[in-house]
Amino acid sequence: MKTLTKTTLFIGTIFLFLLGCNTSENKKNNATTETVFHAKVDSLMGLMTLQEKVGQMVMYSGSGAITGPTVNTNFRTYIKEANVGAMLNVYSAKATRDLQKLAVEETRLGIPLLFGYDVIHGFKTIFPINLGLAASWDLDDIEKGSRIAAEEASAVGIHWTFAPMVDIARDPRWGRISEGMGEDVYLASKITKAYVRGFQGDDLSKTNTILACAKHFVGYGAAQAGRDYHTVNMGEEELRNVYLPPFKAAVDEGVETFMTAFNEINGVPATANKYIFKDILRDEWGFNGFVVTDYTAINELVDHGFAKDEKHATKLAIEAGIDQDMMSSANRLYLEELVNEGEVDVELVNEACRRILLAKFKLGLFDDPYKYCDEQREKETIYKPEFLEAARHSAAISSVLLKNDDKALPLTSEKTIALIGPLAKDKENILGNWGAAGDRRGKAISVHQGIQEYVNDAKINYAKGCEIEGDDESGFNEAIKVAKKSDIVVMVMGEDYDMSGEAASRTNIKIPGSQTKLIKRIREAVPNKKIVLVLMNGRPLDLSEEDTLADAILETWFPGTMGGNGVADVLFGKHNPSGKLTVTFPRNLGQVPIYYNMKNTGRPIPANNPKEDYKSNYLDVPNTPLYPFGHGLSYTTFEYSNFKLSAETTGFSDTLTAMATITNTGDYDGHEVVQLYVHDKVGSITRPVKELKGFEKIFLKKGESKTVSFDLSVEDLKFYNSEMKFTVEPGEFEIAIKGTSDFDFEHAFTLE
Ligand code: BGC
């Protein structure tokens, strides 16, 4: 460690004081522009040694959470040596202040640390998992939820969330499908923007806003066989038309940071991939925030077989445009040496350091490095009643009613309920995989508690029945007994929270353990009673069997801290379900990958004979999924009529309007997600059979009608063509406005 003299410490302090004053003055003059920050960064960098610059490019994990395979307990020493620019997994106003003090008071220049954390679907107040939130199709609600997450996280010293995860995912085996927005490019891009707006707000210098991070760049969701971290091979067409757009949306929304993906893509690991980071992200898209690696991803270049050792890996990563090293220790150990040996251009270090410092200036950390470490604010902010209320609402609107035969739902408070299943009283799994700092057990509301708000205790007959996993059937008899003495059966079942998320891939996507067997036994025991299956899980499951056994199925994902209340609100009809799937539920694993916007093939199945020989089909199951993208029932019914187009032929500079009337024809008021789909019939690159191009969530009182219209311009019809140009091609397009992706087109227009 270099010895610090009192004089150098003094210089640093004076310098930072001046920076702070300048910033305040500029604020007064309303001139806190990026240009001003750049000038400040330049003056600061003028004082920095190479080692101090490299230090900014290093991140270590504290011990507040373990989110990767290695720990390094020397971080306090490294901070004091000016060898650390950021920390993750440290939270609480006290803990972050404590470490910030080391950086500010014990290093020569006193450059404040950045504190990052996985604030993925809430911080303390946990919202439904991201796949569930997406199913609400409610951009305002998603933005509000991430705003609340930022409020809470920023109150405990966090400046930066490693979210949103914007990886398109079409393979339910992959555990991280739970963290994303589903299979659709258009919807995921819109949701990405909502998250970024929510986290970053309109002014990063406010204490309640945090940096967002678009991750994992890129292709992570396409891991072969759904196995986490696995190889990705994809053509340029798929990369550009499917996997890149949500990341581009994040850049367009001003996201400040990016994270690399663990996977290789077309033979080059993402963390050393110049093509995606330099050519696409920086040069093509003009991204000027900073890029952090995923956890130990630089080290992993060696195991990938791309770098001969960690020093080589360090060189490859920085040359690919990666700015900060999360947990590899690679930059700390080798970067300075590589520059001194002439192996790495010092300008690359300067650029990376500049970008990281810029983020710190934007956050106002040079004004006050402790501005996020306020214990009083922490106490006042966490679990505010309005946050909990918002989480309850999100849980309700994220739930998807997959099936509801003979109006099994909603429940009424007069009937006795057999409440069965390993998740009925659960307060731990309900938070989902990224429970962040949420209190598992303590704070969460179980479905049982939620139901207790509606029904008096005497009417609830509870039996656990079985565990989530394992083949124990010893609780079956008790469960059958309570089913027999009740009017209706509600079974709360699904996965354990850590059966999805990172490093949680499954080759079997059925409900685990003996749960389905229990449903079967109950069906046999009470053949004439209604069975309502309430599911908690982090991926599309194969529900083919349950679909034949249960009268109603409500998919609640992992609904979060207030999950029990939100779910009960839906079960009892206080909230009419309005969620729609953003990911396809297959009939079985053999259909995977299956998604609504697939290609037609040269031998599509004829509608009147799907089993025809020499056609693209299966011998054993239909091509169709069990529950399609966009599907989700309501307690009421909606009828679509009067589809109209403003023109049948449209020009390149015109706007085409499509409209339809939606009528609530059932017995309840309710929300409906109205979806616009287009099919570009011929392309220089074949186009998907359907593509979502717009949606609107509307509220209709029973009997009420509304006309919903969508404007389409050529921008909406663009795609990367055979020359990888983002363009639109003339020709015929089919178009429809529907409440699901499961329909046949009846209308078309021509673009001339
Ligand atoms: C995950 C990232 C996460 C990081 C930090 C990694 O293992 O892949 O998504 O942000 O850990 O916790």
Automatic annotation (TrEMBL):
It catalyses: Hydrolysis of terminal, non-reducing beta-D-glucosyl residues with release of beta-D-glucose. The keyword Ribosomal protein does not apply. Keywords: Glycosidase, Hydrolase, Signal. GO terms for molecular function: hydrolase activity. It is an enzyme of class 3 (hydrolase). Residues 672-741 form the Fibronectin type III-like domain. SMART domains: Fn3_like. InterPro entries: Cellulose_Degrad_GH3, Fn3-like, GH, Glyco_hydro_3_AS, Glyco_hydro_3_C, Glyco_hydro_3_C_sf, Glyco_hydro_3_N, Glyco_hydro_3_N_sf. SUPFAM superfamilies: (Trans)glycosidases, Beta-D-glucan exohydrolase, C-terminal domain. Its EC number is 3.2.1.21. Belongs to the glycosyl hydrolase 3 family. This is beta-glucosidase.
